[in-house]
Every structure is written in C-alpha cells, then in structure tokens.
Design goal:
globular; about 75% helix; mainly alpha
Length: about 280
C-alpha cells in the first residue's frame, strides 16, 4: 500500500469520523473514486480500518482528557462506593457507556451481513442525502438542553439511533447529533455528547477487531502504512473535534448537510454516466 494512500485515508478517517459526514462511507468512496486497489482481501482491509479507528480514539480521548478523568473516577466511585446522592458526572459516565450497547450488540451479531450487503456506492450516496436531510430537519428545532441534563431516556434513544450508523453513509456522529438535536439539546451539547459517545462504542469496536487482528497477525507490508494511518487519523481527528465545536457555537449544521447532498449527487452522477 503506498504511503500516500495511507496518509489520504488517515486524513479522511480523522476528519469524517467526527464531522457528521460518515467516515465509513468516505473510506469506501475514496478508493472507489480514485480506482485504488490497495487490499487483496477483506481481512487486510479490516486490519487497516482498525488502525485508522485507533487513531481517532486517541484523538477524542486526547481532546477530552480532563473531562474523561473526572467521568472515569466518579463513575468508578459510583459503582464501588455507591454514594448518595448520585454524582452527575458519574451518572453521565455510565449513561455514555449505555449508549454504546445497542450498536455494539447489533454490530457483533450482524457484522457479516453488514459487510456483504451494505457499503455499495449507490447506497452510500442515498444514505448521505437522506440522513443529511434528517440532520437539517432536526437542526431547525430550538434546542436549549445542556449535556448536564442528559438522562437515561436520552441514552437509550440516541444509542438506538446510533445503530443506523452501522450502514456506511449514515454517519455515527451525524445520526447522534441528529437525535440529540431532536431531543432538544443545543448544538454544542449535541456535538459534545456525540464525541463522548464515540469513545465507548469505538473503543469496543476496536478491541473486538483487535482480537481478530492479534489472532491473524498484521499482513506483510502493511505495518508502516498502518502506523502512518494511525498518526494521520489522530491528528486530523483532533482538528475535527476542535473545529466542529468552534463552528456549532455560532453556526448551524447546514454546511455539513450541503456537503453530504452534493457528494451524494456527485456519486449518483458518476454512476449514471458510467464514469465510475
């Protein structure tokens, strides 16, 4: 695999994992658009995918490190010491874990079907457009709720919505932001909730795939591109988190919606004209 390809895919993963535009969709579309054939088999492609997701996990943990130290310590104390009244940060920590359970369960059971039936260019394009419009619709609602108001009902509903992100083109961050906005959270809180929710679900997915990778071993010739991909996706991911939070404090999600629709239309146009 050329190092340039590893850098490009690392940038794509890092940026699109946290922007509401679908990282899984972009990781499939970019090689399709440029006619890249870097992977001889699905296991090799999965191994590289694990590396890129490791980078984005590092990025979001690095950005929210101070918050996470508080959540983990107070979440642990809540279970070990069972203190009353329940600490708000400790409660939120466990609610964030709860949001990951639906997608983790469905992903583990249906991984094979997802890989075989989803992820075609046409389906990705349709998903980019449809769920982009859903984000635009939800973003029109007046949201005043803050992250401190995040409750068990929110965790269940947004966690259930996150299952839809197993379909490439939906976008994990996009669907969770959409659900959070629909439930009345302001844009900053919706984005923060989405980014924090990424940690348990992505760590779980990476750990699950790492077990397979440890069993099979790193494919020959993929070690250096994987390292490059991890570093690139981590740096791009940190920038994406920082930039998105700055943007949504004063702007709507409209720029992301426009991008999603434009990309979806472009993919359909390339397919219809036979260019790709």
């Amino acid at each position: 695999m050329p190092i340039l390809h590893a850098i490009v895919l690392g940038l794509v993963q890092g940026l699109s994992e946290f922007l509401p535009i679908s990282s899984s969709g972009h990781l499939l579309l970019v090689p399709w658009l440029f006619d890249w054939h870097d992977f001889d088999s699905k296991p090799i492609e999965k191994a590289f995918d694990v590396a890129l997701h490791m980078g984005t996990v590092v990025a979001v943990i690095g950005y929210f490190w101070k918050d996470l130290v508080v959540y983990v310590s107070k979440g642990t104390r809540l279970v070990v010491k069972r203190e009353k009244p329940v600490d708000a940060e400790g409660r939120l920590a466990w609610l964030l874990v709860l949001t990951a359970l639906p997608a983790a369960a469905v992903g583990a059971v249906a991984e094979g079907a997802i890989d075989e039936r989803l992820g075609t260019p046409g389906l990705i394009a349709a998903s980019l457009i449809v769920f982009g419009l859903a984000l635009a619709w939800a973003d029109r609602r007046v949201g005043t709720r803050k992250l401190a108001e995040f409750g068990s009902g929110d965790a269940v509903k947004i966690g259930a919505a996150q299952v839809l992100a197993l379909n490439p083109g939906t976008s994990r961050s996009g669907i969770t932001m959409t659900a959070a906005r629909y439930l009345g959270f302001d844009r900053d809180s919706a984005a923060r909730a989405s980014f924090l929710m990424a940690i348990p679900v992505t760590v779980g997915a990476v750990a699950f795939k790492m077990l397979k990778l440890a069993k099979d071993g790193i494919p020959p010739g993929l070690g250096t591109p994987m390292i490059v991909g991890v570093i690139t996706s981590a740096l791009a991911g940190w920038v994406a988190v920082w930039g998105t939070l700055r943007l949504v404090r004063t702007h709507t999600f409209t720029p992301f919606v426009v991008y999603r629709i434009a990309l979806g239309v472009l993919v359909f146009a390339l397919m219809i004209t036979g260019v790709r």
